[in-house]
TrEMBL record:
The keyword Membrane applies. SUPFAM superfamilies: Cna protein B-type domain, MalF N-terminal region-like, MetI-like. Belongs to the binding-protein-dependent transport system permease family. Residues 12-21 have a biased composition (Basic and acidic residues). It is a multi-pass membrane protein. It comes from Cryobacterium tepidiphilum. The keyword Transmembrane applies. Residues 1-24 are annotated as: Disordered. GO terms for cellular component: plasma membrane. Residues 88-444 form the ABC transmembrane type-1 domain. This is ABC transporter permease subunit. It is found in: Cell membrane. The lineage of its organism: Bacteria, Bacillati, Actinomycetota, Actinomycetes, Micrococcales.
Length: 454
């Protein structure tokens, strides 16, 4: 009998006659060594990823307190709830608008800044919002878009532009001087008695803040004598800073109020004519039929005037929140695309220019196709990010606008922990969000594998 015939099972005889592990035993030993190194990572993945997913799936089939199995009731409730439909609709808007806007802006910035001096400084400025937390960015945008122009810089700019190019005047708080033949009701200031054509009706007003009087205003002047088809008069601020003057009478240092509309109202309530005061506060309503008219200053003269746009209302709130996201993440897209641009073979672009291609043709035929792998990765990453958006949507909208700006992540938190106390329905929303994010994650993983295999 040979020596090999008596060798132990699973052992081979070496050159020196010593036994060594078989191929199968070696593979098992390698497997257990690899498993030992991977064990910590597997434990963490199981505890932090696999277990929460499995538990959330199971929890979604139970009632709010977890004590009763309800089957698919939470999913039925989720898809029949108006707030969930609003959240899904807003998420669709986010997915369509935000990633495209960020990617396009990032591409434009990366390509254009590559051609100018001090490009690093400009890129730093554009990328700087990424250094700000989402919470801080939300506070910044909520303050910027406040409706009150004294607080919100956007409406302050709009009001400033309107005051330069607009011709409307507003004198909020205006009131009548007592015993001057004037009456005020429903914001309208009018003459107590009807005025005959050819007559004069003056309006000494009080209660107007001096800072609302336009800079173009001049000292009030007495109106000229009226013709037979006219009614004339003067509208002025019956107040002198520091005191002085006679109440109800035009005098020095009493400013006229320009831009005030004055109506002549007939007995049947129709407006027979109107005029606007000049810089001295004088007006002339002409073309009137002979008769008597009530002279009135419409309430529109005394409102706050143009105060900008209610940006944080339900109508515009989603757009404001998306704009804040673009402000933050456009810099990320720019940096990613710029890194791909720096690794590009520039000789292809130069060859195209030498063949007579203009810059648009070079960009469309050479630059954009070569950058397409990076652009796709950036775009898909942003889609995943916007599907999970929470911070900005929670911080920026005021209380009345929160339902209109709702998204799935905020709805999930609100239902589970923000007063709803229904973790069954919240778990169902979490599974919906996971199913929406998974396709984009799979696409990204495939892209990374393709890039690694090249």
């Amino acid at each position: 009998m040979t020596d090999s015939a008596v060798a132990p099972v699973g052992m081979d005889r070496g050159e020196g006659g010593e036994g060594r592990p078989s191929h199968g035993a070696s593979r098992r030993r390698t497997f257990f060594i690899a498993l030992g190194f991977l064990a910590p990572a597997l434990v963490l993945l199981g505890a932090l990823l696999l277990y929460p997913i499995v538990y959330t799936v199971i929890r979604s089939f139970f009632s709010a307190d977890g004590g009763q199995f309800t089957g698919f009731d939470n999913y039925v409730t989720m898809f029949t709830n108006d707030s969930t439909f609003t959240a899904i609709r807003n998420n669709i808007i986010w997915v369509i608008v935000a990633p495209i806007a960020c990617t396009v802006l990032g591409l434009i910035f990366a390509v254009l800044l590559d051609k100018i001096k001090w490009s690093t400084a400009f890129k730093l400025i554009i990328f700087m919002p990424m250094a700000i937390s989402m919470l801080a960015a939300g506070v910044i945008f909520r303050t910027m878009f406040q409706e009150n122009p004294n607080l919100g810089v956007v409406n302050a700019a709009l009001v400033g532009i309107n005051s330069v190019f607009g011709d409307d005047a507003a004198y909020p708080g205006a009131n009548v001087r007592p015993k001057t033949g004037l009456a005020g009701e429903h914001g309208i200031i009018r003459s107590e008695q009807a005025i005959e054509t050819g007559g004069e009706m003056n309006f000494p007003l009080v209660g107007i803040r001096p800072d609302t009087v336009p800079e173009a205003a001049k000292p009030a002047e007495q109106a000229q004598s009226a013709d037979a088809d006219q009614i004339t008069g003067t509208v002025w601020l019956d107040f002198v800073k520091g005191g002085g003057g006679v109440n109800g009478e035009i005098g020095a240092n009493k400013p006229g109020l320009p831009g005030v509309r004055v109506d002549a109202v007939a007995e049947d309530g129709t407006i027979a004519g109107h005029a606007q005061t000049d810089d001295t506060g004088r007006y002339v309503i002409d073309g009137l039929k002979q008769g008597s008219y009530t002279v009135a200053l419409p309430a529109a003269n005394f409102d706050e005037g143009y105060q900008g746009v209610s940006w944080l209302s339900s109508t515009f709130i989603t757009g404001v929140v998306i704009l804040s996201y673009i402000w933050i993440w456009a810099g990320f897209a720019m940096v990613m695309i710029a890194s791909g641009l720096s690794a590009m073979d520039r000789s292809l672009q130069e060859a195209a220019r030498m063949d007579g291609a203009n810059e648009w043709q070079v960009f469309r035929r050479i630059t954009a196709p070569l950058l397409s792998p990076v652009i796709i990765v950036v775009f898909v990453t942003l889609i995943i990010n916007v599907l999970k958006i929470f911070d900005l949507v929670y911080v920026i909208p005021p209380g009345a606008s929160k339902p209109a700006a709702n998204v799935i992540a905020v709805e999930m938190w609100r239902v589970s922990f923000g007063g709803g106390s229904n973790q069954g329905l919240g778990s169902a929303l979490a599974i919906l969000l996971l199913l929406l994010v998974l396709p984009s994650m799979i696409i990204n993983v495939k892209r990374f594998r393709e890039e690694r295999q090249r």
